[in-house]
Amino acid sequence: MTEETDVVVVGGGIAGLITARELGRDGLRVTVLEARDRLGGRVWTDHRLGRDLEIGGTWLHWVQPHAWAEVTRYGLEVTRGPRPEEAYWLAGNEVRKGTLDGFMELIDPGMRRLLHETMRWIPRPDAPTSAAGLETVDRFSVQDKLDELALPVEEYHANEAAWVGHFNAPLEDGAFTSALRWTAATAGSWHLMHEASAVFRLASGTRTLVEAIAADADADVRTSAEVSRIEHGPAGAVVTTSSGDRIQARRVVLTLPQNILGDLDVSPRLCAEKRAAGREKTAAKGVKVWIRVRGPIEPFFAYSSAAHPLSVVRTEFLGEDDAVLVSFGADSRRISPHDVDAVRAALRVWRDDLEVLDVTGHDWMADPHSRETWLMQRPHQLTRYFAAQQRAEGVLHFAGSDYANVWAGFIDGAIESGLRVAREIRTAH
Ligand SMILES: Cc1cc2nc3c(=O)[nH]c(=O)nc-3n(C[C@H](O)[C@H](O)[C@H](O)COP(=O)(O)OP(=O)(O)OC[C@H]3O[C@@H](n4cnc5c(N)ncnc54)[C@H](O)[C@@H]3O)c2cc1C
Prior knowledge:
Blueprint: E1 2-10, H1 14-25, E2 30-33, E3 45-48, E4 51-54, H2 65-74, E5 78-80, E6 86-91, E7 94-98, H3 100-115, H4 118-121, H5 135-138, H6 142-148, H7 153-167, H8 176-184, H9 190-198, E8 200-202, H10 206-216, E9 220-222, E10 227-233, E11 236-241, E12 246-254, H11 258-261, E13 265-267, H12 272-280, E14 287-294, E15 300-303, E16 312-318, E17 322-329, H13 340-347, E18 356-361, H14 381-390, E19 396-398, H15 411-428
Parallel strand pairs: 1-2, 1-12, 2-9, 6-15, 10-13, 12-19
Antiparallel strand pairs: 3-4, 5-8, 6-7, 10-11, 11-12, 14-17, 14-18, 15-16, 16-17
The structure holds flavin-adenine dinucleotide (FAD).
Residues 10-16, 33-36, 41-43, 56-60, 226-227, 255-257, 260, 264, 288, 364, 369-370, 373-374, 400-401, 409-412, 414 line the site of flavin-adenine dinucleotide.
């Protein structure tokens, strides 16, 4: 038997839930099909190491208009981790110790030079491909542009590690335009971009945001409902799940990340650009690791280089007899978030006085329902594929943070994309 509804939303992450909420308000019958046994997708608050940890997306900021509107709408409390008292970084093989301000001063000249043409190339982050000749700069990686600066080794490693933290990827894979898009979203200020992407978080976790949107959505939301096939035509689509359920809908919203969208069995198949982007994959292939160490310790942060398994680490929770650190590396194949010994060795790059008690995380790259962390495009992807990735195909619409204009790859972008697609469907009726 085939059920009928107005709209099927594939994916119950932030983008899917926002789309469902908006369309439910319009009086449409909406069914959300989520493959995992939980909602939220790449945001996931889970209780581990004695704390509620963000296994995926975490930080948001008031310069992210869509995310902040949800914070205001649901009255969500925002907090921040402890301010680092100490900073560690590398100059070649030597460890330097200083302050946060000292580190920021060290990377400032490189950041300014790297990003000085931000507003020339991305004058309107809400229309990221609007600059004439953008393709001439979209062919470069961040690595290309960093190398051009010929920075002294200490500045070079510090800048490199800061960008690995942002890109969650080897820098030769990440498009320079992605760095420009992030910075354009904060009107050219790298300081503000840095703060927006890595300081403030929801006090009770992203779980509270997911729950608030889901509770507000007048929709039939189903978990453990993986979509395996979509057949579509001018009059509507039939969506089939892995367990064989079939739902007929007038429109379908797909919210799958770039790295898995092309794998879905869609007939007629998706346009060549969407499939090519999926084959090429995004640049991001890194890892986020949570580390519990014996305390008390002073809050600190540390940056190494792209070559190290962990490039960035900092204190996120301070207890009386322990502390929990959050850490990022460029390549998930180089370190497992579950390998205590490997994490212990990675930390010794900066300090040998920390006693690692436990580690945790999630291998998002191996997860069949994401196969990526957060969007960082590769060279050429912005100018070759982005417009087509956003474009509806008949009754199929495409939401998801990966296809957002301003804060693509962020929670904010997921919300923006859900609002955009809901409007597309509203105006199509
Ligand atoms: C480690 C990590 C750290 C991050 N840090 C930050 C941060 O600090 N700040 C920030 O703003 N962003 C951060 N992000 C990015 C942010 O979490 C994502 O951009 C955002 O959550 C994506 O939302 P989405 O709805 O577009 O996609 P997703 O959350 O990926 O949602 C897609 C949904 O589709 C489901 N799905 C997949 N296949 C199928 C199928 N066949 N059938 C049905 N359902 C399917 C998935 O299970 C998923 O729930 C981070 C992400 C990760 C992984």
